[in-house]
Amino acid sequence: MFSPWTLLIIILVYLLLLFSVAYFAERKELQGRSLVSNPYIYSLSLAVYCTSWTFYGSVGRAANSGLSFLTTYIGPTLMAALWWVVLRKIVYLSKENRITTIADFISSRYGKSLGLSVLVTFVAIIGITPYLGLQLKAVMTSFSLLSGRPEGSHFAGWFISLLLGVFAVIFGARRLDASERHGGLVFAVAFESAFKLIAFLLVGIFVTYGLFNGFGEIFSRIKAGPFASLMTIGSGSPASFLEWTSLTFLSMMAIMFLPRQFHVAVVENYSVDHIKKAMWLFPLYLFLINIFVLPIAYGGLLLGEAPSAADYFVLSIPMHYNQSLLALVVFIGGFSAATAMIIVESVALSTMVMNSFVMPTLWDLSAIRNFHAVVLNIKRVVILGCVFLGYIFAVYIGEFYSLVDIGLKSFEAVTIFAPSILLGLYWKGGNKKGAIAGIIAGFSVWIYTLLIPSLMRAGLIETGGLMATIFNSTLLNPTALFGLKGLDRWSHSLFWGLFLNIGFYVGVSIFTRQSDAETQQAIVFVDSFSPLTLAPAQRPATIAEIEDILGQYIGPIEARDSIDGFMKKNGLDRESISREWLLKLRQEAERTLSGALGTSISTLVFEDRMVLTHDEAMRVSDSIQHISRSLRLSRQELAEANRQLAMLKEFSENIIESLPLGVATLDESLNVKYWNSGMEMITGVEKSDALDKSASGLLTCLEPRLFTPEVHEGEITCRRNFEPPIILKGNVSRLTGAQKGYVLVLEDITEKKKIEEELFRATKHASVGKLAAGVAHEIGNPLASISSLVQELQTEDLTSFTAASLTTINQQVHRIARIVRNLGDFARLYPRQKVPTNLRDILENTLNLVRYDRNFRKIEIQTDVHDTPPLKIDPDQIQQVFLNLILNARDAMPEGGSLSISVKQSDGHVEMCFADTGQGIDPEVRDKVFDPFFSTKGPTKGTGLGLSICYSIIKDHGGTIEIDSEKDRGTRFIIKMPVEA
Amino acid sequence: MGRDVWFFLFFIGVLLFGWPLMSIFLSGLAMYLFVSWLLFIVLIYFATKVTEREDGGG
């Protein structure tokens, strides 16, 4: 009727249409206008249950086994009545525990066991592969029927499998989504469900009313013919009541535990509310899609078609009557049914494989680059693998079985999960070991009673030898296990499977212990769910809804600002926000609200669990807005206080830094915590070098004994790194307040001390000077009288003795006069005049005076006289100073030595240095050498006034004289005289 | 009403589609099954409406 390429193109176009539909739905979701979040789409998506088995196989079964095909749909209808109790609980638990597959659900229930997840995934893959194969078989067969080219069906099947695999990847693995939500896919499945229903109704109407005169004619003709047994159940019919019951039960389990059903019903569920509507909408769909099954099946038989070809009556009948368009619609309908199942099932299975096998294996590699891309690509490969596994089954085994047969095997397989899930939801005693034992037992029965016989029938397992012996035995016959006969194979497999499954599950659970994790999860799964508190589960909400909810409690403007801020921060656009960011926005909104209401309440608010009256909501809103305003004000005040505190801190720091004193704070361990610039100047230690260092390490004089609870104040002499010792006046006190430690305040009083000493000396000089002046004056007069009398007596005629005595008296009088003159000099009895004089000349004159002194013969005199400007000085006085220093040097070197005299200009001064290599002066007396009447030469050798006079003269000239001497290492006198401008 | 209504409904369904009642209507079993099926769906519908009106949940 259609060429293969035409059909392939049509298939491609239809898939593209599906993709467009999915893309459209996803775009709408991104814009916050979800098409998927409603109960009608939810119910239609559940209709993925109706696969090509429904489309083709139901008619086939009806034509061969009568009414038993209805069990496939009545079972889910019965189960739907319990959805509000069972499915709702499963959905709630899955949302709470972030469960995305049935394997995760079982694993989570039993202590989050990875091993159990792996086992369930393995069973699911083996069990569902036939179901996938069933779809591909249906597509291949319908393709070859419509194209009239059976020989091309394998190639077509391969190509279609590839195409479906690729589209499954496009639909389900474009990106990794932690929530495993695929809104576009769900919408596409709903679209397909609608299409296949319409297609089936069309062909049903055609057969019932186009070829016959309605239900009445068909049923009455069948009743009257050889196929009357198809209209009943029980004795005389192909199906027994036991089989009816078993198949109904299997279907009830299938609607809950087929991986694709779990995915659309649980994982893709937007709101628990939708379940309420789906409870009657979905059974209604099943009812509608089955209305015409019997008429088509019976009609085909009445038209003479063979019962063995009944699977494809829906296609063959329109083709027979040249209804090409209808046939095409039916083909697409059947293709639609298969496609939806393949895509959803392969996505669900791939998620299970990823969660159970791949991610646990690759988790250690999560740090590698592009890990995300690696995982996504693996998922895509797994999806393709699942599809091709189904293809292999369809090609090598599928031909031996009808569609329904293949499908029922999968139903039996997923029933294996029923005890561990259903009992696990209501019995806390079930544990991991029990679940594993039950699943393994059930799976073993399934393999032995259903899979192996089909593999044998397909020729893939040898039927002879040991296998034949085992299979024909009484106990181990796959169709009569342990001698139980009389059951159809579905009932038989179901009975033994459930018996051993439940037996092992309950038995092992009772006799083994639960781990703490299992106990905890049992409580979570069995007890935490309470219908009384249950309300609609989390739904993603749109931006408008989030803003609206937030606005009710914090004010609309604040809500808008909050959301705008979030959008701006993350570079988002309100019109095109992804689901992932929408969830994050909701979480952010919950966090914002939790600041005012608390986490639990804010969660409840967003989950619509908070049931407040309008007035209560308004009062809460007012309170929150008042709190927000107060908080804003408090924040402003706090900011202002912070600012002022910062200013005050800066001001205080500036004061301390500006002080001419050294201020430092130390902690209890005497480590420096603060060191101002004054301390830097005084100590020469930079702040950066001082902080956190021990104080005594920086200045040795800061000994620990100074830092006691009592305040210490006093003077200490400190050594610095680069200068002569300094004298510091310090104050050490305890820090009061929370921070313990010490405050150290230091003042450099070295200069002050020097000035005080100078003053003291000057005062002493002045006092002594006054005394000397008085003594000189009192002695001078009598001396003059004595001297003149002696001179008169010397002119008389005297005896030699008298003459000698008078000479001696005269000498002593001169000596006394010299002393008086020195005293007079000291007291400045003889005023002097200062004139500009060259020091070189004075020095030369002085050296000329002493050069010929025999005591200077052993002394080497070295001079280093630089050109200096003339100084306004009293030349005689300065010469006196030079003479005193040179004579002192001579006296200090009785055995000889050297005397170095240097004169140079330096820093606005003329510096003169007299350095000898004599005995030196003891440190104890060094400071006293300039004191009047102090002498180191003994009482008969000098008056002790020489250096005092030098000191006074130099001071009088505005200069300074210092001594630097060490015992046995010579003495150096340094005179500095200012150069007058 | 709580979850009791659903268990009751389920029980009704098991009866409706179980051997005892089905065997009574063997002569017109197809009709019985479809009518019962539709009736059961309607019962579910009404039960959901009633429970929604009462307390919004099961």
Brief digest:
Chain A is an alpha+beta fold. Chain A is built from 37 helices and 14 strands. In chain B, 29% of the residues are buried.
Looking at this protein, list some descriptive labels:
heterodimer, A: 981 residues, alpha+beta, 5-stranded antiparallel β-sheet, 5-stranded mixed β-sheet, 37 helices, 63% helix, B: 58 residues, mainly alpha, 3 helices, elongated
Helix-strand layout with pairing:
The complex is a heterodimer of chains A (981) and B (58).
Chain A: H1 4-30, H2 39-46, H3 52-65, H4 71-80, H5 86-96, H6 102-109, H7 114-147, H8 153-172, H9 183-211, H10 215-223, H11 241-257, H12 259-267, H13 273-290, H14 293-302, H15 313-320, H16 324-362, H17 371-396, H18 403-415, H19 418-426, H20 432-457, H21 465-471, E1 476-477, E2 480-481, H22 489-511, H23 516-526, H24 543-554, H25 556-569, H26 579-597, H27 599-606, H28 614-658, E3 662-666, E4 672-675, H29 677-683, H30 687-690, H31 695-698, E5 712-718, E6 726-734, E7 742-748, H32 750-793, H33 800-826, E8 835-837, H34 839-851, E9 859-865, E10 871-873, H35 875-892, E11 897-906, E12 909-916, H36 923-926, H37 946-956, E13 960-965, E14 971-978
Parallel strand pairs in A: 9-11
Antiparallel strand pairs in A: 1-2, 3-4, 3-7, 5-6, 6-7, 8-10, 11-12, 12-14, 13-14
Helix pairs in contact in A: 1-8, 1-9, 2-9, 2-13, 3-14, 3-16, 4-11, 4-13, 6-7, 7-8, 7-16, 7-17, 7-18, 7-20, 8-16, 8-17, 9-14, 9-15, 9-16, 10-14, 11-12, 11-18, 12-16, 15-16, 16-17, 18-22, 20-22, 24-25, 24-26, 25-26, 26-27, 32-33, 34-35, 35-37
Chain B: H1 4-16, H2 19-24, H3 29-55
